Structures are given as C-alpha cells and as structure tokens.
TrEMBL record:
Reaction equations catalysed: 2-C-methyl-D-erythritol 4-phosphate + NADP(+) = 1-deoxy-D-xylulose 5-phosphate + NADPH + H(+)
Protein name: 1-deoxy-D-xylulose 5-phosphate reductoisomerase
InterPro entries: DXP_reductoisomerase, DXP_reductoisomerase_C, DXP_reductoisomerase_N, DXPR_C, DXPR_C_sf, NAD(P)-bd_dom_sf
Domain DXP reductoisomerase C-terminal: 259-379
The species this protein was found in: Sulfitobacter noctilucicola
Encoding gene (name): dxr
Function: Catalyzes the NADPH-dependent rearrangement and reduction of 1-deoxy-D-xylulose-5-phosphate (DXP) to 2-C-methyl-D-erythritol 4-phosphate (MEP).
Cofactors required: Mg(2+); Mn(2+)
Pathway per the UniProt entry: Isoprenoid biosynthesis; isopentenyl diphosphate biosynthesis via DXP pathway; isopentenyl diphosphate from 1-deoxy-D-xylulose 5-phosphate: step 1/6
Amino acid sequence: MRKVSILGATGSIGQNTIDLIARAPQDYDVVALTGANNIAQLASDAIKLKADVAVTADEALLPDLRDALKGSGVEAAAGATAITECATRPADWIMSAIVGAAGLAPGLAALEQGSTLALANKESLVCAGSLMLETARANGTRILPVDSEHSAIFQALIGEQMSAVERIIITASGGAFRDWPIEELAGATLDQASSHPNWDMGQRITIDSASMFNKAMEVIETHEFFDISASQIEVIVHPQSLIHALVGFADGALMAHVGPPDMRHAIGFALHYPDRRHLPVERLDLASIGTFDFRAPDEQRWPALRLARETMEAGGMMGAVFNAAKETALDGFIAGTINFVQMAEVVEQAMAHMSASDGHIDATMTLDNVLEVDHLARKAAQAAIHSRAG
Ligand code: NAD
Ligand code: MG
C-alpha cells in the first residue's frame, strides 16, 4: 500500500485525485487530507478514505471539523501551520493542490521529507521555482507536474535529451473571452469570467484562463521546471483544448500530447508514474473531432503574456512578485473593486514598484525571503488597486 496525502483535497484537483484513489482503495493508505471552508466535504472524504488526519486552513472551523469527524477515529487539525505539519507526516506521494502561494510551504515540507510531490500548485513554481527544485534534489526526491500542459511536456520528453529540444509550445484555450471585442473586456462581469469553455476548474484558475494569467503562469512554470529559456517557449491558442503541449526538437519534429480536457489524465499519470495504467477518461474519436484549430495569441488582448516574459527576463524573485500581485489583483476583481482589464495594470504597476525597491528582486531565494517579497508585492498591488478604486 502506498501512503498518500492530498493538500487541497476539497478543490477541483483534489476531488479528481480522490476520484482516482477511491477507485482502488486497497492500493492506498491515506495519511492526510486538507481543505479550507468546505468542512462537510473534507470530513466525509477523510472518513471514506480512512485518513489519519483532516486539516482545515481556517482555525475558526476546527470545532465544526471535530464535530463532523466525531467517532470516526480521524484526527482533526486547523491552521496554516497544521497544514504544513501534516505535509511532514511520512508519505510516498503527496498531491499539492492548494490554490495560491499558500501551497508553497506545505509543498516544500513534503519535499523535505522525501515524498514524491505531484504538483498542481503552479504558484509554488512561479514564486520559488529554484527553491522547489533544489529542495527536491537535496532530498533525493522529485516533482511530477500535474498541470495538463506540463504533464504533456513531461510525457513528450520521456526518452529524449533536453539538449535536443528546440522549443516548447503550450496551448491555451483562450478562455471565456477569446472572441470578445477587446473594448468590451473592461465590462466583463465576474460571472462571465468564471465560466470556462472546455475545462471544469476552480473559480480562480478559470478567471485566470480568461485573462491569460493562467497561461502566463504556465510559461514561467515551464521555464522553471524544464530549465528552458524564455525565448524557447511559445504559446498558441487552440480553442478545442485537445492538444495540451508540443515539444519541438532539433530535427524539426514536434511531439504533441493529445487527450480529452480531463485533469484525471495528468493526475493519474503522476499517481502511477513511471507506469501507465488504465484511467477512466474519455477516448477521443478523431474523425468526429475533425479539425484542430490554432491561432496566434494577441498580446493586446492578453497583456499577461508580455508580463510573464518581463518576469522571466528580470529573474530572481520577480516570479514571487508576479504571482502575489496577480493573486491580489484577482481578489480585487472578484471583490468588484477593479475591472477585468485593470488586473494586468495592477500587476504591471506592482512589478515596476518592486523592481525599483532595492535588494528584493536579487535576494537569495529562501522561503522567508519569498514570503517577504510576496507580502511586499501584495502591498504594492493593493496600493495600485486603491489608486484605481479612487
Ligand atoms: P480550487 O479552488 O477548486 O481548490 C483549492 C483548494 O485549496 C481547496 O481544497 C481549498 O480548500 C484549498 N485552499 C484554498 N485556500 C487555501 C489556503 N489559504 N490554505 C490552504 N488551503 C486552501 O482550486 P483548483 O482548481 O483545484 O486548483 C488547485 C491548484 O491546481 C491551483 O494551483 C491551480 O492553479 C492548479 N491547477 C488546477 C487545474 C484544474 O483543472 N482545476 C489545472 C491545472 C492546475
Ligand atoms: Mg494548465
């Protein structure tokens, strides 16, 4: 039996992970599940999977969690420290599926104890890529990408030499507004931005798909994880979301990964790696699909792509700035304080502010320094939001 934990178990990725694990309960010994507000889901999954411990991020909800787990033998805990602590409980495989920079410290803790880290939390690679990879190396373990594009790239690279890679192309659906007139984007509502044409995901990543901030994050994630230069990474709009990524080699060959838009593929690949096993995902009927469409991404519509390039050019801690400012701008949009197009303006302003502030971007990448830069970038983004909210 493999010992597994799921951080962010109540979310979209977490629930898809549980779906796979619950199909073969005899194969897994579940150590910890974590969540935040959805106590009923967290408790019922912890009981169903016979987890040792269930942890909520919200300390105020500990009594509710205790109540929901009463008599089950599952331990209850709460708070950010408890989440990081549960990631240090020995496990062979840990799913990192918390949303946002809150996933960084628990992910590092999982790597420090030598667990294989299945990484959906792209924010931790964007804000601390070298720290994550260095921690994995130092502890003799590995990170397996769970973002669909990065799983696709990883699979296309099996048996290949990185030195023969010319370019990596990641696909983008274009999100909710790919066909909207640009001048209407400022009026996009929260509801409109929260529905994705192809993927069923958490609200934050769905809005990030509409603004292309998700793809911008994924470009940085590709740069960090595969150690490839920014100039070798391309984004192509592919409305069907069936090709997830392509790797281009020195001989001109392109290896594409094709599959249905179902995260259980990338999760299952990471769960069974290095084996491939049966997964309950749709088998594509290419004749009925007919065509794959592609378009060049428009940087006027999606300034996030330019900001990602500038982040990689700046290097150092700029990824932490980019991520924190993006999270803050997204909070501002969800709260109705800024409009859809102002999110990119806020991120750009926070990046400019942080580059002008001495020493932060070039600081050594430690967890404390990343959290400090994250904090300052959130303040800078808040100021940019306030100046717009009048
Ligand atoms: P979600 O919003 O559905 O779930 C997020 C999870 O994190 C929940 O369990 C929630 O309780 C928990 N959480 C939220 N705030 C927290 C905090 N402060 N501390 C601890 N836990 C907290 O999100 P999701 O769509 O499942 O995405 C999770 C991660 O996976 C994100 O990093 C996202 O970018 C990435 N990802 C998601 C998809 C997808 O299809 N949903 C695809 C690729 C990558
Ligand atoms: Mg993705």
